[in-house]
Design a protein that fits this description.
2 copies of one chain form a homodimer.
Chain A: E1 24-29, E2 35-41, E3 47-53, E4 56-63, E5 66-70, E6 72-75, E7 78-92, E8 102-115, E9 122-130, E10 133-140, E11 148-154, E12 157-160, E13 165-168, E14 181-184, H1 190-195, E15 210-211, E16 215-218, E17 224-230, E18 238-243, E19 248-253, E20 262-265, E21 268-269, E22 272-278, H2 281-286, H3 289-292, E23 308-313, H4 315-318, H5 335-347, E24 352-355, H6 385-395, E25 398-404, H7 409-425, E26 430-434, H8 449-464, E27 468-471, E28 487-490, H9 510-513, H10 550-559, E29 564-566, H11 571-574, H12 578-586, E30 591-600, E31 604-611, E32 617-623, E33 628-633, E34 643-650, E35 663-670, E36 675-680, E37 685-692
Parallel strand pairs in A: 23-24, 23-29, 24-25, 25-26, 26-27, 27-28
Antiparallel strand pairs in A: 1-2, 2-3, 3-4, 4-12, 5-6, 5-11, 7-8, 8-9, 9-10, 10-21, 10-22, 11-20, 12-19, 13-14, 13-16, 15-18, 16-17, 17-22, 18-19, 30-31, 31-32, 32-37, 33-36, 34-35, 34-37
C-alpha cells in the first residue's frame, strides 16, 4: 500500500491544567461546521458529550465511564487534567476498495482525566470530529495506579432526542444473522424478533431491549444516524441496551462466562465508538469515517493480495444436490465434480473455486459441542487435492480452502499453522473460515473479547503466510480490513444462504438495509448471483425460494461491495442464461471510484462504481418489494467521452414472486448529460455496464 | 519396549441373558482368594458391588451409576443383559521403572447392562480382581441409543466399614500441593485444612467434606486401603465426597464452568476406579495394579527415552540468590551462570541442566489471568541459547527446557509445535512444563476434563517430537507413564520447593506419606538432595528452612522413585560435602528390582533397589519427626556374593531442627544373611550403597 500523506498536525490549541472544581465545557466543530461536539464536566466530575448536526441536537448530553471488576470500582467522576486539540487532513490509498483514495479529515480533542472517586486512575478520552460524524475512544495510559484490569461494564451512553425509526437486529452474543426490523425505537422487542427466527441454529439473546450495531436510525425530519464502532481489537463487541423511557442507548459489551467483559493491561485503547450523521442517505453510505478511524495496514508489501471473483462447490449442498459429508453417496467435493467446477471457472474467467466438504469430519461436525472435529489437512478419500490443485494451476484457477471450525476454536488454533502450511503446499492462497455452533472454549461467545482476539490472531497469521481470509459466522467488521487488507471479507450478517432457510428466508428489502447497517463496517461475502429461484430442483418437498428477480441478482454485485465475490448459483443454472451471465463475468471486484446515486434504507439503493484502472463504470440498482422507477443521472461519466450503456433490467412483467427470471438486456449510447430512467420490478433491480467509446 | 507375554484368556465362564426380573449376584475371587468381589443387582435394578479382604468386609455394598446432563436422565437402575468372565496372567517390561518386569494377573468380570428407566442406553461394567485389590470401569459402547453425551455426575460409591484413619488432602479443583492430614474420616475438615495453607497461591476448594485421591485409609486392625484411579483419559479427575454419617465416599468429578463433568461420545471407557487392599504397608507400596490397568506404550521405539539425573538453574531463584526475570539485576539464567552449571554437571556426571527464567516474559507472568505471557522461543538477551547448547554438547550435558505456561493453556497450545521444534533445533530433548495460576480457557480448572485432555495432547505431541516430559502443577498421575513412557514425571503434589514456603513449608512426615498416596499413581519430580538447611543464605530476613537431616536428603533419591531426578541444591552447597555428594552422583535413576523393606505411612519408609543392568543395590530409609532404629534384612542380596555396604547416615547428634548437617559415612562388608541396624535421627534418614564384591 502506498500512502500519499499530507499529514498536518495543527498546533495544540489549549494545553492547560484545570483546578479540581472547574466546571468545564469544550466545543469542537467539524471543518464544515456540520457537526458540533460539546464535552462537559460538571461540578461533581460527571463527564458527558453531546452532538449537534447543522444546529439540531442529535445526541443529548450523554455520560461516559466504566465499571471495573478489577480493581472493583466505578470510573464515573473525573478531574480534567489537561486538554489538547489538533487537526488532521490527509489522503491515503487502500490496498483495494470502493475508491482509490480516501480523505481523512477531522479535528481531535484529547482529554486527560483522573478518577475523582479517589483511585487516582488516569483515563484519556479522544474525540475525532468529522464532517459526517464523530468517533471517540477511551484510553487507559500506562500508569502506576493500574496495570492489569478487568472491565465490568462500559457505560457509554447515546441519549437520543426522539423516538426515531430504527433498523435493528436483536442483541445476541452468538449470532448476527437476523433479518432487520424497522420500527420506532419504542417498539423494539428483541425477544419477539428473535423468537420467530427459527432459521438461526444458535441464538444467545439476552434482553428484549437489546440491539446490535451498526444500528441505523432515521429522525422524523430525515436525518440518518449510524451508531457502530471502529477498530475492534482486544475488546468485546459492543451491542446496545435501549432505555425506552428516555430513548437512550447504552453500550452493552459481550461478556465471558465469568461475567467479565475484557481482561486488559495498560496502556490500552478501546475501539472507537462511532456516530455517523447525515441528512442524505447517499452521504451516509459514502462515509469512510470508520475506515479512517482504523490503523494503517500492517502488511508492508500487499502485492500478493488480490480481490477475487469465484464460484463454489457450495450451493449444491444447500439445495440438496450434494452433501458435505462423504457418507450417503451424494458427496459433492469429489475429484470429478470439482474438476468440472475448475473447468467452468476457467472457461468463464473466474479466479477461483471454493470447495466445501473436502475434508474428513463432516459426518459428525455440528451441534454436539465436540472439540476435535476437523484437522484441516485430511481430505476425503474421493477428493484428490494434489491432482486438483495441479489441474487448477494448468487452468489458471486457484482452489479456495474451506476451514469449518464448527465453533471449536481451541481445536482450530492448535491446527492453524499446519493447516496454512498445507494450503501453501497445495498452491491455495485464500481461505473461507466458518464458526458454526457453540464456541469452544466452552462458555465463550462468538462476540466476546476472546473471540475478537481469535479473529485477529487468524488475520495476523494468515497475513504471515500470505493467505487471504474470508470469515463466516464471525464478528461483524469494524473497518479492520484497512489494517489487515488480507482479511478480504466476512459474512457476519444474514447472507444469501438464508434464501434456502425454511422459516423466514430472505426478504426483498434486506439488500436495501444491509448497506446502511452491516456493510458500514466492511465488505460482506454475500454470494449474489442466483438465476434459479425455486429451490426444489433436487428436493421436490422444499418450499424455499429466492425472493428477488434475476436482474436484481446482477445488481447486487455492484450494490453489495466485496473484493471477495462468489457467484453463488450452480454452473448449470448460469449456462441457461449466458447473456445475463455475461454481466457476472464482466463485473469487477475492485474499484477506483464509487458514487451513491440514490438510496433509502428499506426501499432502494442505486450505486455506480468505476472499474479499477479502467475507464468503464458499472451501476447497480435494487429495490424492495415495491416496483419503482429510478432516474440515473450519469454526470459521473467522463464528459469527454461517450459510453455504451448495456442495461440488464427487469422485464415489464418481472416480479420477484410471480416472474423472477424475466429480464431484458438493452444497449444505448449515453454521455454524462444523460438521465437514464430504469424501471425496477417488485423485488427487482438493474445492472448497467458503461463502456467508454 | 519388549513385552514378554503369556496372555491367557480363559473360557468365558458364563454367557447368558438374564430375565428382567432376575435378581443377580456374582462373586469373583482373586487368584489367591485374598480379594473377593461381589456384584449384586436387586429387583429394582439397583447395582452394587462389595469387596472383602481375607474374609473381612472392606467395601460394603456400594451403588454404581451416573446422572447424565445430555440426555438428561439418571442411569441408576439396570437390566443385566449378559455377563462374562476371563482370566489374564501376563508379564510385561516397562521402558523404565522400579522393576524390570511386571506381572499382571487378574480375573475379569464383564457386565453388559441396559438402563431400566426406559432410555434403552447400554452400559458395560468391567471389574478386574487382583490379589491386592480391584479396578473397575464403566464403558459406554457404541450404540444407536446414544452418541454424544454429557456426564452430569458419576455416582460411584465406596461405602466403608468403619471410621478409618485417613491420610488426605482437601478436595480442590486447582491444586494438589497440600500437606497431608492424618485423621479419622469423621474428623475430615477440608475447609479448615485448606484455610491455613497460605503457601498455595491458587486454591479452589469446594466442600469441607471433600478429599483427593490417591487416598490412603488404614483400618483399626491394620489393613491398608488405597483409593485412586488408573488411566485417566478424556475425563475429569475424580475426587471424593465424604458422607460422615455412614462413612461413605462418593466420586466427585471436577466440573467445567458450565457445571458439566465430561463431554463424551460413544464408545467411551471411563478411567478405572482402583481400590488396593493389603494388610502389609510394604505390599501396598509394591503394588503395580495401577500400572497394570493402563494401556501399553504408544511408543514403538522408546530407545530415545532416557531416565536422567540433572541439576537446575532453579533453587537460586527460590532462595533469592537470583531471579527468573531479567529486570532487577539478579537474572539467574544468564549465559555465564548457566555455563558454570554445565561445567558442574559435566564434572559430576549429571545428564542435564534445567534452566528456568531463560525466556522473555517473567517480568509480568503471574497472577493476572493474562493470556499472552510467554512465546517459548524468545530467550532473554543475556541468555545465548545457541552458544550454550553447543557448549553443553561438547561437555556431554543436555540442557533441559522450561515451559512455564502460567496457566494460559490456550497460549501454550498455540505455540507448542513451534516451541518443540525450537527445542530440537537446540539439541534439547526434555521439557519441564509449568501451570502456575488460573487456567485459560477462563473457567476451566487444572483438574477438569479439558485440562486432562491438554496433558494428554502434550504427552502425545512431545512423544511425536521425541521429547521427554516432566509436568508441574499438573493432574496427579494415574499410571499413564506406562502408555506414555516419555512422560517421565510430574510434580502434582507438594514438592521440595515448599521448603521455602513461609507458612507451613514441609514437615518431616511428608516423605513417609507421599509413597502411599501421590506416588501410587506415578513418579514425582520431588527435587531431593539439599545440603543447606537454613534458607536465609541470600536473604537474611527469611525464616524458611528444610526440615530434614542431610542423610535423609540422600535417602529420598531411593525412597521417592523418579526416572527424572533433579538434585535440588546449589553447586556451592554440594561441594562443601563432597563425601555425601558422592551418593547423589552414584545413585541410579532406573532399576531392575525394588524391595519395600519396611514402611508405615506417616512414620517411616525403607526401600532397597537394584541398579538397572548392574549387580549393585541402593537402599534408602526415612523417618518422620521421630528418631527410630531400622533393622535392614539384606536377604535381597545375591547369596553368592559379598557386598561392600557404604552407609550414609545421621550422626548420633543429628536432628532435623538442631543439627541437620551431621552425618557419618561408614563402610562394611555384608552378605544376604546380614541384618544391619541403622539409627535414624529425628527427621532423619540413611542411604546405603551395596557394591558387589
Amino acid at each position: 500500500m502506498q500512502i500519499s500523506k499530507y499529514f498536518i498536525i495543527c498546533l495544540a490549541l489549549l494545553t492547560m491544567t484545570y483546578s479540581i472544581k472547574a466546571q468545564d465545557s469544550t466545543i469542537v466543530q467539524s471543518k464544515s461546521s456540520a457537526i458540533r461536539l460539546q464535552l462537559n464536566t460538571d461540578e461533581s466530575g460527571r463527564l458527558s458529550y453531546s452532538v449537534k448536526y447543522r444546529g439540531e441536537p442529535i445526541i443529548l448530553p450523554s455520560e461516559l465511564g466504566f465499571i471495573l471488576n478489577k480493581p472493583a470500582l466505578s470510573l464515573n467522576r473525573f478531574q480534567l487534567q489537561k486538554k489538547d486539540s489538533s487537526t488532521v487532513d490527509e489522503n491515503w490509498e487502500p490496498v483495494w476498495g470502493e475508491v482509490k483514495s480516501i480523505r481523512n479529515s477531522y479535528k481531535e480533542l484529547f482529554y486527560s482525566l483522573v478518577d475523582k472517586n479517589g483511585s487516582g486512575i488516569r483515563l484519556n478520552l479522544i474525540f475525532r470530529v468529522f464532517d459526517e460524524g464523530i468517533g471517540f475512544r477511551y484510553e487507559f495510559p500506562k500508569q502506576q495506579q493500574m496495570e492489569h484490569f478487568i472491565i465490568g461494564d462500559e457505560q457509554t451512553r447515546f441519549n437520543l432526542t426522539a423516538d426515531h425509526t430504527a433498523f435493528w437486529i436483536p442483541g445476541d452474543y452468538d449470532s448476527n444473522e437476523y433479518l432487520y426490523n424497522s420500527t420506532r425505537l419504542s417498539a423494539v422487542d428483541a425477544k419477539a424478533a428473535a423468537s420467530h427466527e427459527t432459521d438461526i441454529a444458535l441464538k444467545s439473546g439476552y434482553s428484549n431491549l437489546a440491539v446490535q450495531t451498526p444500528l441505523l436510525l432515521k429522525t422524523d425530519n430525515g436525518i440518518y444516524i449510524n451508531i457502530h464502532e471502529a477498530a475492534l481489537v482486544n475488546y468485546p463487541v459492543m451491542q446496545l441496551d435501549l432505555n425506552k423511557e428516555n430513548i437512550s442507548l447504552k453500550s452493552h459489551l459481550v461478556p465471558d462466562v465469568m461475567g467479565n467483559k475484557a481482561y486488559l493491561q495498560t496502556p490500552f485503547k478501546t475501539p472507537w465508538r462511532t456516530i455517523i450523521i447525515c441528512n442524505k442517505a447517499t452521504e451516509l453510505l459514502a462515509s469512510k469515517m470508520i475506515l479512517n478511524l482504523n490503523e494503517p495496514s500492517i502488511i508492508q508489501d500487499p502485492s500478493w493480495i488480490r480481490p477475487q471473483k469465484f464460484i463454489g462447490m457450495w450451493w449444491e449442498m444447500h439445495v440438496g444436490k450434494a452433501t458435505w459429508q462423504k457418507s450417503g453417496g451424494k458427496h459433492g467435493a469429489n475429484t470429478n465434480n470439482v474438476k468440472k467446477y475448475i473447468d467452468f471457472a476457467a472457461e468463464h474467467q473466474f479466479d477461483g473455486v471454493l470447495v466445501e466438504g473436502w475434508n474428513e469430519g463432516w459426518e459428525d461436525w455440528f451441534g454436539n459441542w465436540k472439540e476435535n472435529v476437523f484437522d484441516f489437512v485430511t481430505p476425503y478419500a474421493d477428493y484428490n487435492i494434489d491432482s486438483l490443485s495441479a489441474y487448477a494451476k494448468t487452468k489458471g484457477v486457484q482452489l479456495i480452502m474451506h476451514h469449518e471450525t464448527s465453533g471449536s476454536v481451541t481445536n482450530y488454533e492448535r491446527h492453524m499453522d499446519t493447516a496454512y502450511r498445507y494450503m501453501l503446499a497445495h498452491d491455495i492462497h485464500s481461505v473461507k473460515t466458518g464458526y458454526v455452533g457453540r464456541i469452544i472454549p466452552r462458555g465463550e461467545y462468538h462476540d466476546g473479547q476472546w473471540m475478537v482476539n481469535h479473529f485477529q490472531r487468524v488475520a495476523n497469521k494468515t497475513a504471515q503466510y500470505k493467505i487471504m481470509l474470508d470469515s463466516h459466522e464471525s464478528i461483524r467488521p469494524t473497518g479492520l480490513h484497512r489494517t489487515y487488507p488480507n482479511w478480504l471479507a466476512s459474512e457476519a450478517a444474514r447472507g444469501n444462504e438464508f434464501n434456502n432457510a425454511p422459516a423466514l428466508g430472505l426478504v426483498p428489502e434486506h439488500e436495501t438495509i444491509l448497506p446502511f447497517t452491516r456493510l458500514m463496517g466492511g465488505p460482506m461475502d454475500y454470494t449474489p448471483g442466483y438465476f434459479h429461484f425455486q429451490l426444489n430442483q433436487f428436493d421436490s418437498t422444499r418450499k424455499t425460494r429466492i425472493r428477488t428477480t434475476l436482474a436484481k441478482q446482477l445488481a447486487l454485485f455492484v450494490t453489495i461491495y466485496s473484493p471477495f465475490q462468489m457467484a453463488g448459483d450452480l454452473p448449470e443454472n448460469y449456462i441457461k442464461h449466458p447473456d445475463a451471465f455475461q454481466f457476472i463475468k464482466d463485473v469487477p471486484v475492485d474499484w477506483d471510484d464509487t458514487r451513491i446515486l440514490a438510496a433509502e434504507p428499506g426501499d432502494f439503493v442505486v450505486i455506480a462504481r468505476k472499474a479499477k484502472g479502467k475507464p468503464d463504470w458499472y451501476a447497480g440498482a435494487v429495490t424492495d418489494e415495491n416496483a419503482r422507477t429510478v432516474i440515473l443521472d450519469l454526470s459521473f461519466l467522463d464528459p469527454n467521452f461517450k459510453y455504451t450503456a448495456k442495461i440488464y433490467k427487469d422485464a415489464d412483467n418481472a416480479h420477484w414472486d410471480k416472474n423472477p427470471e424475466a429480464y431484458t438486456i438493452e444497449k444505448k449510447i449515453v454521455t454524462n448529460k444523460t438521465k437514464t430512467k430504469v424501471q425496477l420490478a417488485e423485488g427487482g433491480g438493474a445492472a448497467i455496464v458503461f463502456t467508454r467509446l
